[in-house]
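Hi there, hope your week has been kind to you so far. It would help a lot if you went through both lines with me. No rush at all, and the record is pasted right below:

***
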Amino acid sequence: MHLCQKSIKIEFVQCMNLCHFCFPTLIAYAIADGEIQRFHWMKTQLGFDKFLPLAIFNDATNGYLLDDCCLFGTEVIVLKNSGKGECMSLFKDPANHSYTWKIEKISAIKDEYLYSPEFTIGDQKWKLLLYPNGNNTSKGKSMSLFLELSDYQNLPKQRKVYAEYKLRMKNQVDGTWSERGRGNRWFCTSSTNWGFPDFTALSDLNDASKGFLMNDVVVVEAQITGGGSRILY
C-alpha cells in the first residue's frame, strides 16, 4: 500500500504561559513542499484544499485505496524553542466599557488613598485608585486618579495588558461629564497603574459652580475604549 505523494512535517515548539492567545502548550509549524506555515491562535488549521485528485485517489492502480481503506501519514518532530515570539490580541469598543464610582462622605476620608470596587472590562479586572488630596507633587493641589490592573499579581512577567482609557468626573448639577484625562498605556507587573496626578484641581473641586462636589459626594468614571494583551515567549 502506498502513502500519499505529498509529505507533511509538523514541528512543535514548546510555548510558555500563552493563555488564550496561542495553544496552551504547543506552537506548530507545518512544512509542506518546502513552504513553512505557522500555526497560531488565529490559524489553528493548515493543510491542502486539493490534497489529491479524486480520480487518482480512486484509481486502484495507484494503490491509495484498498478494500475501501486508505492510510495517511505525517512526520512529527519535537524541538526546543530556540527563538523568541510574540502573541497579541486587540479589541475595540468592548461591551460595558465604562465604570462609574460614586464616592460618598469624601470629606471624612482620612486615608491617603482608596480603591474602588473591582470591575471587569475587556476580560480584564480593574480598579480605580483615588488620592483625594493628591499624591507626590500634586499633594494639596489636586485630586489624583489612576486606572489600575486589579489582578496584576497573577500576571506572568512575559505578559502585558494594553488599554485606551478616559477618566472623567461628573457635574452633578447638570448631569454632564468632564473628561479630565485620556491615555493609552501598557500595564504589567512593574507598571500596574496609569492615570493623572492632576486629575482635578482642589480649587475646582470645591467650586460649587463646577458641580463636581455635591452633598459631600464625588462621582468619577473610567472608560476603556480599546485594548488587548501581548505576551512574549
